[in-house]
Design goal:
Number of helices of chain B: 13
Mean pLDDT of chain B: 97
CATH superfamily of chain A: Thiamin diphosphate (ThDP)-binding fold, Pyr/PP domains
Structural class of chain B: alpha/beta
Oligomer: heterodimer
CATH superfamily of the largest domain in chain B: Thiamin diphosphate (ThDP)-binding fold, Pyr/PP domains
CATH architecture of chain A: 3-Layer(aba) Sandwich
Largest interface: A-B, 51 and 46 residues
Low-confidence stretches of chain A: none
Mean pLDDT of chain A: 97
Strand order of the largest sheet of chain B: 3-2-4-5-7-6-13
Distance between the termini of chain B: 53 Å
Radius of gyration of chain A: 18 Å
Helix content of chain A: 25-40%
Order of helices and strands of chain A: EHEHEHEHHEEEHEHEHHEEHH
Number of domains of chain B: 2
Number of strands of chain B: 16
CATH class of chain A: Alpha Beta
Distance between the termini of chain A: 52 Å
Largest sheet of chain B: 7 strands, mixed
CATH topology of chain A: Rossmann fold
Number of strands of chain A: 11
Strand order of the largest sheet of chain A: 3-2-4-5-9-8-10-11
Chain lengths: 295, 387
């Protein structure tokens, strides 16, 4: 079914049903407001789809389509092909977007295909680090030692036993013109990166870290602060690649990882576990070294 | 223009004449020659279309979904496992009412892996909301593609269409076909004008979450459209037949059923063999005939009943199964005839996985009519089963 959107200042309008403090709603609004009204969105199944488009309402002020969980990159490829055929490819922006599971797990093949084929599309992954729409199940992008409903903490487990899947690095490895990470904590940086990405040829990838108060068991009023701590501890590097080359990083004075971990219930079990804390510190150290994050 | 051509190449040439704007496909035997043909037409500048090579059938179906949602005329082709991988998107395309046209080069499904013909693949998506056509020969295959676009894009319908073409038997066979001129197709098929599409000047949201308050109505709407499509398919077939000066498309074809007491029902290329057997038996004075289901979904119940006339024995001969239950067409026919006279309806499964179908086996089915076969597998090698 098709529903007509209201046209007001925001292209993702208030009135949707996202949870209080949702980092994804915040980031998605910044992305589409920056991209502007001449944008077509293909959206994966997930929270963003569910909370913005329950029939007969829509929160989107741009043409928007949802098909399935794993195929937004392929649906966007078809839209891009049609725009190319109609000679409109330079008049519109095409954005494919989804969560971390829709992007890096079930949608990895479709994403890789879209990147490899070089469609003029910006893919945006809103990374809240688990399957939140179905109730906080572990995804490939869930960080090490997170307590989720399918990687629960127990007498034999400290939570998710695998490191975060390097989907961003995999995207970069496709040799695309532009790839960047960003955070809901830094709206101006998201704006800058969306603008930059849309000015670049071919396929682009933007991965935005977006706190999920429900899934992370964090205070809804602290979303921005928590997102900022992820960056400042070195656990979520903010970086930018053009044509495979690192062109910028957000420099930090690294804070102790505990400052980030203690804000969230998903890491609560780690705070008195020095052995596990040391493993998390090592992840931060490796990120800082890999990208030269320290000022 | 008459020409001697391979089935797949005939389909490629015909599809190109329908001027699809976005084509996407992933290779699978025996569909490959169709999409290779289209790729070459695009490469040679003979077809102006975006041809998108993808990493899976799931994405091929998703690309044409996106293209169609953006207002483009689209085409894809697949087979067997490819259609199964597409299945999720197949249902989605129908639910979104997008008039995609897909050729299914009918092939068995795995395991065991088998690349030869039967109808198990497309039967898995018979309930998806796609209109299903099946072709007896290469001529019918190309005619049905033209009619498919006409019906799919008709605003009263706006549903996708699958055309089943028997793998190898039709895709790799050569036949003399009457290939319509471009101006005939252009006259018949106007430019695609979608009911709703992605347009920055008129921003709509498509593919919304439909809760318990709206979902069943979306299904009812497709159901109703399917039933309403029956006369629209006939109308579209009649119009195209008029332009060609010969019969094309339709719901069912009755062959020598007048005064017949025993009538077979089948879909696809096996109908050709059955027609030969009917001719032989008629020469021996037997009152036999065959009804071909050209349109399988929507199920042309009334047209079928009419075509069967007063036949006492109805023999469903099919290349598909519903393991643990009556085979699909057999069940459909029994259901359609329930309470409509006292015909004896028998069901036969034949030719799975490309097993050769000799005329003698079809003849035996006719000669044994009346013995009440229910879902009987024909031509089994007992040694294999007992070994």
């Amino acid at each position: 079914m098709a529903v007509e959107a209201d046209k007001t200042k925001h292209l993702l309008q208030a009135g949707h049903t996202a949870c209080a403090g949702c980092g994804q709603a915040l980031a998605a609004r910044i992305v589409i407001n920056t991209a502007g009204p001449k944008t077509i969105i293909a959206n994966s199944t997930g929270c963003l789809e569910v909370f913005t488009t329950r029939a007969p309402q829509t929160a989107w002020g741009v043409p928007w389509v949802h098909s399935l969980f794993e195929n937004s990159a392929a649906v966007a490829s078809g839209i891009e092909a049609a725009m190319r055929y109609f000679g409109k490819i330079d008049e519109v922006n095409i954005i494919a977007q989804g969560g971390d599971g829709g992007t890096g797990d079930i949608g990895m093949g479709a994403l890789s295909g879209m990147l490899e084929r070089g469609h003029k599309i910006l893919y945006v992954c809103y990374d809240n680090e688990a399957y939140m729409n179905t109730g906080i199940q572990r995804s490939g992008l869930t960080p090490f030692d997170s307590n989720t409903t399918t990687s629960p903490v127990g007498s034999q487990s400290t939570g998710n036993q695998r490191p975060k899947k390097p989907v961003f690095e995999i995207a970069v490895a496709h040799g695309i013109s532009y790839a960047a990470t960003a955070s809901a904590a830094f709206p101006k940086d998201i704006e800058k990166k969306v603008k930059k990405a849309l000015s670049m040829p071919g396929a682009k990838y933007l991965q935005i870290h977006v706190p999920c108060p429900l899934g992370w068991r964090s205070a809804p009023n602290l979303t921005v602060e928590i997102a900022k701590l992820a960056v400042e501890t070195g656990l979520y590097p903010i970086v930018e690649f053009e044509n495979g080359k690192l062109v910028s990083v957000r420099k930090i004075k690294p804070k102790p990882v505990e400052e980030y971990l203690k804000t969230q219930g998903r890491f609560k079990h780690l705070l008195k576990n020095e052995e596990e804390l040391e493993k998390i510190r090592e992840i931060a150290r490796q990120n800082i070294e890999k990208y030269g994050l320290s000022v | 223009m008459k020409k001697f051509v391979e089935g797949s190449h005939a389909i490629a040439e015909l599809v190109a004449k329908c001027r699809p704007q976005v084509i996407s496909a992933y290779p699978i035997t025996p569909q490959t020659h169709i999409v290779e043909g289209l790729a070459k037409l695009v490469a040679d500048g003979k077809l102006n279309a975006e041809f998108i090579n993808v990493e899976s059938e799931h994405s091929a179906a998703s690309v044409v979904l996106g293209g169609s949602a953006a207002g483009a005329r689209t085409y894809t082709a697949t087979s067997s496992q490819g259609l199964l991988l597409m299945a999720e998107v197949i249902f989605n395309i129908a639910g979104m009412r997008l008039p995609v046209v897909l050729t299914c080069a009918n092939r068995s499904v795995s395991a065991p892996i088998n690349i030869w013909n039967d109808h198990q693949d497309s039967m898995t998506v018979r309930d998806s909301g796609w209109i299903h056509f099946y072709a007896e020969n290469i001529q019918e295959a190309i005619d049905l593609h033209v009619i498919a676009y006409k019906v799919a894009e008709d605003k009263r319908v706006s549903l996708p269409v699958l055309i089943g073409i028997d793998g190898y038997v039709l895709t790799h066979a050569f036949e003399v076909v009457d290939m319509p001129d471009q101006d005939v197709i252009d006259k018949y098929l106007p430019a695609f004008s979608p009911v709703a599409h992605l347009d920055v000047d008129n921003p709509l949201s498509l593919g919304l979450l439909g809760g318990p308050d709206v979902y069943i109505e979306t299904r009812y709407a497709i159901e109703k459209t399917m039933i309403d499509a029956l006369p629209i398919i006939e109308e579209a077939s009649k119009e195209y037949s008029g332009l060609l000066g010969r019969n094309a498309g339709g719901l069912v074809e009755a062959y020598r059923t007048e005064d017949a007491d025993t009538v077979a029902i089948a879909i696809g290329s096996i109908v050709g063999t059955i027609k030969d057997v009917v001719d032989d038996l008629r020469a021996e004075g037997k009152k036999v005939g065959v009804v071909k289901l050209v349109t399988y979904r929507p199920f042309p119940k009334d047209a079928l009943i009419k075509a069967l006339g007063s036949a006492k024995n109805v023999l469903v001969i099919e290349k598909a199964v519903s393991l643990g239950a009556d085979s699909p067409v057999y069940a459909d026919v029994r259901s359609a005839l329930y309470g409509k006279g006292n015909a004896n309806v028998e069901g036969y499964v034949i030719g799975l996985g490309g097993r050769d179908i000799p005329a003698s086996e079809i003849k035996n089915i006719f000669l044994n009519a009346g013995k009440g076969a229910e879902n009987e597998y024909v031509g089994l090698n007992i040694e294999l089963l007992e070994g």
